[in-house]
Amino acid sequence: MKTIKSLFITSLIISGIAIIGCTSKDEVINTNELDEIADAIYKTTTIFFDETVPNPVCLKEFPLEELNETEISALSQMREEELLARDIYLQLFEIYKYPVFEFIAKSEAWHTGVVKYLIDRYQLTDPAAAHEIGLFTNTDIQALHDALLHKGKLSGTDALKVGATIEDVDIYDLQNLLTNGIDNQDISCAFQNLMKGSRNHMRAFVKVLSYGGTTYTPQYLTQEEFDYIISSDHEIGPVDCNN
Predict the structure, then answer these.
(1) What is the secondary structure of 1-54 as a DSSP string?
(2) So what's the architecture of 2-231 in CATH?
(3) pLDDT digit string (tens) for 121-145?
């Protein structure tokens, strides 16, 4: 693990990557801060591996239960909402080359794959069957994508704030769905784990923002909910869906 982390430090020094962006142009970070920054980025790489559970095999162990309308709508919504996150992070990575976007985009690809597995399991129509990056069948998600991408293109700092906002939306929506109509065990377990992943992603974006002296104000979660997440440790391993 230390070897991987040291490679991050080396790559940062060699490439001169500026992690934090300013309104006008990205600022160069003092090399004394590289170890801390590498640690923040390194944690985003562990997110992808931490979230490999529950995989489709685990979800298959749950019984097939009758779907209600909320669950059908929720699966369609979250399929594209997770794609929105992946698509924006990929597009912002192309602009700024911040590793945090590339690493979390991989995690979001896994997220949307989990939802796709559930859609297939229940033989539902996949709203993203012919998905192209940045294009969505849900008009609300399309509008959100366009607005956030526009903001993210303004500066590196704005891009990182967009990342935090996306995770803010994800946690908010998943919380509401889990407390308002989701009762199938497999869907509930999957959504709990997606929400855990989003908490980790938010911690990563907020931590990287902090190195530029920038704070993020929650747009969807309450300040109390946000503060609790940020003050809590990075979550490793799957959520125990039996408790």
Answers:
(1) -HHHHHHHHHHHHHHT---S--SSSPPPPPGGGHHHHHHHHHHHHHHHHHTT-S
(2) Up-down Bundle (1.20)
(3) 999 999 999 999 999 999 999 999 9
